[in-house]
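Justification of computing resources. Each target in the renewal requires a structure prediction run like the one illustrated here; the chain below, 177 residues long, is used simply to show the kind of job we budget for.
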Amino acid sequence: MENIYSELNTSIVRFIIAAYEANDFRALKQLGLSDKQVKRVIDMPMKQFQRFNAMRTPIATVEFNPRHFDLCVDYIIKESGTDETKDQMIKMDASAAMLEALAGMDIMEYRSRRTRLGLDKASQGRPASLNSDESITLSQSWDKFKDEQDDMMRYFKVGLDTRLPLNKVWACLRLEQ
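Resulting structure tokens:
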């Protein structure tokens, strides 16, 4: 039979050690541990830590803070969506400068994402100018998404709507501002 408490027990012991090493005595007090109990864990030889995996009884009771839990889950889901959007924007030829300004993405992350997505190196220099039809299409689309509060999402939606490379969209709109 699998021991369902081994992961919980091991994680708690790791947390105790990490809190101690970070001098976070407040966290240790919140766990309800005495100084003596903390010292016993800290002084334990490394080989003995593996024995926590064999304990069939939980060493702590876990209580969730529903508000914090929901905030964390919401944030993780939102960030996951944001990561997908960033990848899509890179596929749509968003420049490093654009993603740095809109999403705080540094050049190393930009290059890493391009590599992971199987894309060649980004082109250098200013993209070609839009022709008059593309300019009109861009202007109409930009106006269409004027209520989008998030600038990154607005550019993304405009790129999807116009099918124009985002580096061109960025360059054109930056010149207008």
